[in-house]
Design goal:
Pfam families: Lipase_GDSL_2. By secondary structure, the protein is an alpha/beta fold. Helices cover about 40% and strands about 10% of the residues. It contains 8 helices and 5 strands, in the order H-E-H-H-E-H-E-H-E-H-E-H-H. Helix 5 links the parallel strand 3 and strand 4.
Length: about 250
């Protein structure tokens, strides 16, 4: 019989008391986190976010620098559940840097069927900024350098996503969403400057001529980047970090 090692205690956020996208990968990420903490591996970069992060194959784009990079994106996640799982999926793993990208899914509440689920642009703006600020501050308190990514613009042909049954379909709020996300990006940039975090402006490089809407060739569903979109994001991230002397 092969010998075993003592299992290490880990932080687990548990599941939520409502239908939450964050629950779908909870057991998977708890398992990954325990495996990581049970071995002496130093994490260089931890990416936390929603589907745009989960679907980004980080090893394809950043393997050449020899960095240890982990992905803790969850499709459909929102900023307030990202904040709740932050101690488990970021803090206890002690990465040198954390890349935080989120907020788009919060905006689905613009089209909620039930009025008690609906949120105004101002309410969504405030909750994104609040949650992102708290994640940045938690990072700094634990010796982790936060990298704040701007929200991406969306296109005009977003399909009906199964993970959000509470919203009206088809989507009718593209213009409002894009204006809201652009305003939030300005606020996130100011917050990052105030907190001495790193801000990454993906938005500028992904929008079309109107300065608000996603270039149609960069996403097959008007929301999630395809390989062309991720190519741009990787180049923007690599170049932006190099200005701080950081290699990824």
């Amino acid at each position: 019989m092969l010998p075993t090692i003592q299992r290490v205690p880990i932080v687990k956020p548990g599941t939520f008391s409502f239908i939450a996208a964050a629950d779908r990968l909870r057991s998977v990420y708890d398992g990954y986190n325990e495996q990581l903490l049970s071995h002496p591996i130093a994490v260089d970069f931890d990416f936390i976010g929603e589907s745009i992060t989960q679907y980004w194959d980080l090893q394809v784009y950043f393997r050449s620098a020899g960095k240890f990079i982990i992905n803790r994106g969850i499709s459909g996640d929102v900023t307030y559940t990202m904040l709740r799982r932050f101690p488990a999926d970021v803090i206890q793993l002690k990465p040198k840097y954390v890349h935080i990208l989120g907020g788009t899914n919060n905006t689905w509440r613009l089209d909620a069927v039930e009025m008690n689920q609906r949120r105004t642009p101002e309410q969504i703006y405030n909750e994104i900024l609040r949650d992102m600020t708290m994640m940045v501050q938690l990072s700094k308190q634990n010796g982790i350098m936060p990298i704040v990514g701007s929200s991406l613009p969306s296109g005009r042909n977003i399909p009906c996503f199964h993970f959000e049954p509470i919203i009206y379909c088809p989507n009718c709020s593209t213009d409002i969403r894009n204006e809201l996300l652009a305003a939030n990006n300005n606020a996130l940039k100011r917050m990052a400057e105030h907190e001495k975090a790193i801000y990454i402006d993906y938005h500028t490089y992904l929008v079309g001529p109107d300065g608000k809407t996603l270039r149609p060739e960069l996403a097959d569903d008007s929301l999630h980047p395809n390989v062309l979109g991720y190519n741009i994001m990787a180049e923007v991230l690599r170049n932006s970090l190099s200005a701080y002397g950081i290699v990824i």
